[in-house]
Design a protein that fits this description.
This is Nitrite reductase (NAD(P)H) small subunit. By secondary structure, this protein is mainly beta. The protein contains no helices and 10 strands. A hairpin with a 6-residue loop joins strand 6 and strand 7.
Length: about 100
């Protein structure tokens, strides 16, 4: 996998996010309270709300438009809602946030 260096981990607040431009639109990189990072397309599968502006709870983000709960690891909406935000591999290596881009579907 080809990893892209994005930023230092401390440049993303705990329970916060950062947006980067991807080849198919914005990608939100989320940091959990225990310093894990996850990356999803910055569009809720429901109505396209900006997930980067949602609140992070554990390993989920709540869409700011209609409070859909999106799993950060998979991008899957939590029941009873259905749909999926495209997930991108992300990691922290030597204190740096890295992202691997791959096409949807």
């Amino acid at each position: 996998m080809n990893w892209l260096d994005i930023c230092a981990l401390e440049e993303i607040n705990a329970l916060g996010s950062r947006i980067i431009k991807g080849p198919k639109g914005d990608i939100a990189i989320f940091r959990t309270s225990d310093d894990q990072v996850f990356a999803l397309d910055d569009r809720c599968p429901h109505k396209g709300g900006p997930l980067s502006q949602g609140l992070i709870y554990g390993k989920r983000v709540a869409c700011p438009l209609h409070n859909w709960q999106i799993d950060l690891e998979s991008g899957e909406a939590q029941a009873p809602d259905t749909g999926c935000a495209h997930h991108h591999p992300a990691r922290v290596a030597s204190g740096r946030v890295q992202l691997a881009l791959r096409d949807a579907g």
